[in-house]
What we know:
The complex is a heterodimer. Chain A contains no helices and eleven strands. The N and C termini of chain A lie far apart (39 Å). In chain A, the strands form two sheets. In chain A, strands 2, 4, 5, 6, 9, 10 and 11 form a seven-stranded mixed sheet that branches. In chain A, strands 1-3-8-7 form a four-stranded antiparallel sheet, with no helix packed on it. Chain A is an all-beta fold. Helix content of chain A is 0%, strand content 51%. Chain A is globular. Chain B is mainly β. Helix content of chain B is 0%, strand content 50%. Chain B has no helices and eleven strands. In chain B, the strands form two sheets. In chain B, strands 2, 4, 5, 6, 9, 10 and 11 form a seven-stranded mixed sheet that branches. In chain B, β4 and β5 form a beta hairpin. The radius of gyration of chain B is 13 Å and the shape is globular. The mean pLDDT of chain B is 96. Classes of the chains: A mainly beta, B mainly beta.
Amino acid sequence: EVQLVESGGGLVKPGGSLRLSCAASGFTFSSYSMNWVRQAPGKGLEWVSSISSSSSYIYYADSVKGRFTISRDNAKNSLYLQMNSLRAEDTAVYYCGCFGNDYWGQGTLVTVSS
Amino acid sequence: DIQMTQSPSAMSASVGDRVTITCRASQGISNYLAWFQQKPGKVPKRLIYAASSLQSGVPSRFSGSGSGTEFTLTISSLQPEDFATYYCLQHNSYPITFGPGTKVDIK
């Protein structure tokens, strides 16, 4: 059974940092590009970042460029998102996903508030 | 960057209705388009990939068409479980972009 399980969300003050993790199982994680997508409360879906299977190619949305860093550890079947300089507008449920196979995690809520 | 628009943004429909949702890209994206369905509090679910290919397990009342800049998602006969928000997604080039969504609710 394919599983993507996010963790690391929570409440953080503006300017703070969080590191999200996504643990993958049930498929060959190292073969696929992975993504982070977020959804602010009551809003639509927003792509955040993508990383290729071998980490050779990395892309970010303009809204997070310079503040967020995506990475992966294929030996641990894990995807990460380091989020720095967080803002109120970063408040959202963050999903990890593999678009190629339509695999999604259940999401982890990040709340940026003082 | 490629901008995605959807129309309508919301609609009311009845069970059995034929529903069509349109997604337009600000520039050509070939067939690098997917359609997702999302219900409140749930994870998005892909319905269509490559503009017109039906995701395994998705009912055949869903279909997609289009290429280039204009795409449609059609539900041939709306069922109670289809009331949801629908998003298109382009992955022709980065940044990947979602459409703003179309909420389909009960008339």
